[in-house]
Amino acid sequence: MTTEIKPQIDVRLPVEYTDARVNANIPAGPIEQKWSKHKFEMKLVNPSNRRKYTVIVVGTGLAGGAAAATMAEMGYSVKAFCYQDSARRAHSIAAQGGINGAKNYRNDGDSVYRLFYDTIKGGDFRAREANVYRLAELSVNIIDQCVAQGVPFAREYSGYLDNRSFGGAQVSRTFYARGQTGQQLMLGAYQALSRQVAAGNVDLNERTEMLDVIVIDGRARGIVTRDMVTGKIESHLADAVVLATGGYSNVFYLSTNAKGCNVTATWRAHKRGAFFANPCYTQIHPTCIPVSGDHQSKLTLMSESLRNDGRVWVPLKASDPRSPDKIPEDERDYYLERRYPSYGNLAPRDISSRAAKIVCDEGRGVGPGGLGVYLDFTAAIKRLGESTVRERYGNLFDMYERITGENPYKGPMRIYPAVHYTMGGLWVDYNLMSTIPGLFVGGEANFSDHGANRLGASALMQGLADGYFVLPATISNYLAQGGLEKVDTTHSAVQEAVQSVTALTQKFLDIKGTRTVDSFHRELGKIMWEYCGMSRTDEGLRYALQRIPELRQQFWTDLRVLGSGDDLNQELEKAGRVSDFIELAELMCLDALERAESCGGHFREESQTPDGEALRNDDDYCYVAAWEHTGEPSKAVLHRETLHFENIHLAQRSYK
Amino acid sequence: MKITVNVWRQKNTSSKGRLEKYQVDHVSPDMSFLEMLDILNQQLMAKGEVPIAFEHDCREGICGSCGVVINGLAHGGQLATTTCQLHMRKFKDGDNITVEPWRANAFPVIKDLVVDRGSFDRIIQAGGFISAHTGSAPDANGTPIPKENADLAFEGAQCIGCGACVAACPNASAMLFTSAKVGHLGLLPQGQPERQQRVLKMVAQMDAEGFGGCTNIGECSAACPKEIGLHFIGRLNRDLLGATLRGGSTVD
Fold it and tell me: Any idea which residues of A carry the catalytic annotation?
């Protein structure tokens, strides 16, 4: 750490622990039967009654698009919303590598149980067993569904589907479409959604940002939105609301997420009563293109699939000035192969990222500022030929060359870890319902399936499992239980929500200070990367917890947003998002401070094994931390959902 | 590097636009084109001027949000590159760069460089899908698909819907966009039952949106950041002819 630390800061740690409000509602019975039994026990809505129910879906990525399309197919009246100009552009589109499916098409020992096991272990035993088993179970249906939609997965000459391997697994269970798997799955969901729009079953609202949840009689009954072109703020009512609005990596300013990705929908729901779970669990992806300068606006991921054939190394000597081709084999350190011989370059993301940080901290990093490691394809090109490498990764190599101006067929790529995904999110039970009844959360926006670290090719799987299969079933069950009074826009809760959004929007314009939104966002990002990034300490987090409220104070007194609220105003949109990121940042640091153990992507320097691996503390921290908003992020109350491991024994995770 | 940019400024759809000249200093060759616009916007805001609205999101060349005409070329003319992936090292110190929105009747300008591409969504809604109800799918390996077909289908499926093909076309035709989807789904066995109807409906919607006709110039394919080939237009025309002769029926 380079910035001065002031260790005397006193931070109030929460003391009011309670479990009562975070009941996961896990069905009884053996793990293999929980979902099918639950599906039978859940209530159904008669097909002819479904159109009487309105379901709002916010976000049109894999989880939201799939949920909206599927519920519309079932006959519900669906209203879908996205901030992009088209539903097809949700950030799921940028996922590169692949999607896991326990098909065992390779006959290499895969099974639903093994995918379940790998995901629990990969998540460092901080995910809920029942949810993860269901995810593994549904993985096979997802592959079937996507192929039926026309998703052009890679195939072999036989005409059958191809597979590749991914980090954290010893089987080949990843289905892919070159380096554009997310795009192809996304377009599958978008096309299914488009079909329902044409059929009149989905009212699709693009360029519309959700800015609040309407809660009536303790249930989620609608949302407040702002039309990003006209500035019109209005309410939309429904019988259930789904948030599928993605993750919050952009709290770090620099991340691999799209520039528009934000926490606003989930954060505002949190402020209305939805608990936020494990906010400190963030994934730092090991293979991204290093930062090139202060102008940097975002980071670009190079798919983890590259580690199938690329070898990661740094020079043995610190500050070695030689170009990579001048460094002989015996003066290179293939540190992943050395430290993790059985997984080698395919060690999971959290472990690979930390290993890269360690070698760079030792002064052995390469490229400008020493913040980079080599990802070398020389051996693969020699073994397979350049054309095979091009066939597998051509688009990624081209992208690397466009961004860096360097040709990766001629010399190794330089890569460095970057924030990529957030495992934390709104707390949900087994039915993916938040602590606000009627508010469901899918995909990256919820916390449920990845524990403290997500394995590669699992995000697409989870988004689609939630969207195509879980939410349509559990929402039907919720609606079938009835008790939903008819509400209209004259209700005081609706009026209050609309007024508060209107007032907040105006407030940003009225500050008339001197600093731009981006300047605050960059400053926040630096604090978070330094103190709540790849490794965290008690004193660093306490320091951040002092800095963030100061920044928030400056934001609300010195922000400058030009233009007006009644037309397209991209600065105004960003102001709202950054105001929420600043609040979230505080909760993330509080959560990271409270969890004085290392697990997965959350590495506390105080808690490590002698050889530098994350050291969990199962006696004290084997729980989900679900935070309740009570007015201020610093005053959030912690509710603990204890995790029970009945099928997979808690063990120190090893990839050696 | 020092760059001069002439940027199209237009308050809203109904107002008249104009080119405004701005100077951007301290441009690094490692910046992306959009990062250069970011810096320009920070400069404008520091002077109390409303920043330039432009569309962008993933900045990785896959979401299809960004897209402007740079010196007369959609996305700036670098092969297989979206605006967000274009880097300033492709320009020289002292260059004068003109930046305009996509120009097409079917893409009305919303503000500055932002246009409305909803017409593309409506073309897909007209038929750019396979009607596979969730839950109705057979085993994924139930139908082997020749690799050649799958690869070609993928080539069409790569379309990011950015609209560069329309912007590059002197007729503002959407044939490459429409044909990429018709080709993708028509090359797969799953896409056969709806193949005839699909092409008829998508082409009808394309015409209804006010896109121009295709005269096989090929600018669309040259500007396409995913390098979607003109042969997809050939495929569409063949399908359209066949479907029209059959009256949209799948039965010969």
Answer: 349
Q: Is A64 helix (H, G, I), strand (E, B) or coil?
A: helix
Per-residue pLDDT averaged across A9-25, rounded? 69
Among B24, B122, B124, which would you mutate to test the A interface (most chain A Cβ atoms within 10 Å of its Cβ)? B124
Residues of chain B positioned with their CB less than 8 A from the CB of A95: none
State pLDDT tens for residues A226-254: 999 999 999 999 999 999 999 999 999 99
Which residues of chain B does A475 touch, with a Cβ-Cβ cutoff of 8 Å? none
Inter-chain CB proximity A86 and B39 less than 8 Å: no
Residue-wise pLDDT for A89-132, tens only, equals: 999 999 988 999 999 999 999 999 999 999 999 999 999 999 99
- Residues of chain B positioned with their CB less than 8 A from the CB of A157: 147
CB contact under 8 A, B62 and A93: yes
B140 to A399: CB separation less than 8 angstroms, yes or no: no
- Cα A491–Cα A496–Cα A499 angle in degrees, nearest 5: 125
pLDDT in tens, A547-583: 999 999 999 999 999 999 999 999 999 999 999 999 9
What token pair was written down for A90?
């949700």
Quote the CA–CA distance of A12 and B100 in Å, as a whole number.
53
Residue B59 to residue A105, Cβ atoms within 8 A: no
Confidence of residue A12 (pLDDT cuts 50, 70, 90): low
Which residues lie below 8 Å from residue A561, measured CB to CB, with a gap of 6+?
Answer: A508, A509, A511, A517, A569, A571, A572, A575
What's the predicted TM-score (pTM) here? Answer: 0.96
Which string of b and e fits A20-47 if b means at least 16 CB within 10 Å? eebebebbeeebeebbeebbeebeebee
The Cα B7–Cα A100 span in angstroms is: 45
Task: For residue A286, count other CB atoms closer than 10 A to its CB.
Answer: 31
- Chain A: residue nearest B32 by CA? A403
Convert the pLDDT of each residue in A498-517 to its tens digit.
999 999 999 999 999 999 99
| CA A318 centroid distance within chain | 35
Confidence of residue A2 (pLDDT cuts 50, 70, 90): very low
CB contact under 8 A, B32 and A86: no
- pLDDT at position A392 over 90: no
**Which of A582, A471, A616 is CA-nearest to residue A57?**
A471
Report chain B residues whose CB lies below 8 A from the CB of A75: none
CB A235 within 8 A of CB A224: yes
Separation between Cα atoms, residue A227 and residue A205, nearest integer Å: 9
pLDDT tens digits for B90-121? Answer: 999 999 999 999 999 999 999 999 999 999 99
Interhelix angle for A492-511 vs A570-594, to 10°?
Answer: 100
Residue written as token pair 């508010």: A439
Looking at residue A7, its pLDDT comes to 46
Structure tokens at B3: 């760059």
Q: Do A568 and B110 touch (CB under 8 A)?
A: yes
Per-residue confidence (pLDDT) for residue A21, from 0 to 100: 86
Q: Would you state the pLDDT for residue A17?
A: 57
Count chain A–chain B contacts defined by CB atoms under 8 A. 218
The alpha carbon of residue A112 and the mean position of all alpha carbons in its chain are separated, in whole angstroms, by 23
Nearest to A398 among B55, B80, B114 (CB): B80
Q: What is the pLDDT of residue A314?
A: 97
What are the angstrom distances between the C-alpha of B215 and each of B171, B175, B176, B212? Answer: 8, 10, 12, 9
A94 chain-B contacts, CB cut-off 8 A: 58, 60, 62-63
Q: Which of A73, A180, A198 sits opposite B134 (nearest CB)?
A: A73
Cβ proximity of A73 and B134 under 8 Å:
yes
User: Which 348-407 residues of chain A touch chain B by CB within 8 A?
Assistant: 398-399, 402-403, 405
Q: What is the mean pLDDT of chain A?
A: 95
- Using the Cβ of A468 and the Cβ atoms of chain B, whether some distance falls under 8 Å is answered with yes
